[in-house]
Amino acid sequence: MTRTLFSTIETAVEATANGKALHSVDSKNRDNLGTHFINSEELSQFEMLPLPGPSPQLAWEPMVS
């Protein structure tokens, strides 16, 4: 099992180093690894929302004394 885990990690590191994200890893190894690489198609399903709180621009305005 340890050898399989290291093989999976090596494959993930090599693929990432080559600029390729792994779309999926077989379920047994993914459970051991605890990692899932998200590709651009999966990422596009999420909507970017503004974070709650004050606008970031407010932090850069000069203080009025």
Highlighted features:
65 residues; mainly alpha; 3 helices; elongated
Write up this protein.
It is a single chain. The protein is an all-alpha fold and 65 residues long. It has a domain of 44 residues. The protein is elongated.
Beta-strand percent range: under 5%
The secondary-structure class comes to mainly alpha
Distance between the termini: 65 Å
| Percent helix | 40-55%
Tally of alpha and pi helices: 3
The best one-word shape is elongated
Tell me, rounded to a whole number, the average pLDDT. 59
| Radius of gyration over all CA atoms, rounded | 20 Å
Number-wise, the strands total 0
Q: Residue ranges: pLDDT <50 for 5 or more in a row?
A: none
Largest sheet: none
H-E string: HHH
Describe, in short, the structure shown:
This protein has helices spanning 2-17, 27-33, 40-43.
Topology at a glance:
Elements: H1 2-17, H2 27-33, H3 40-43
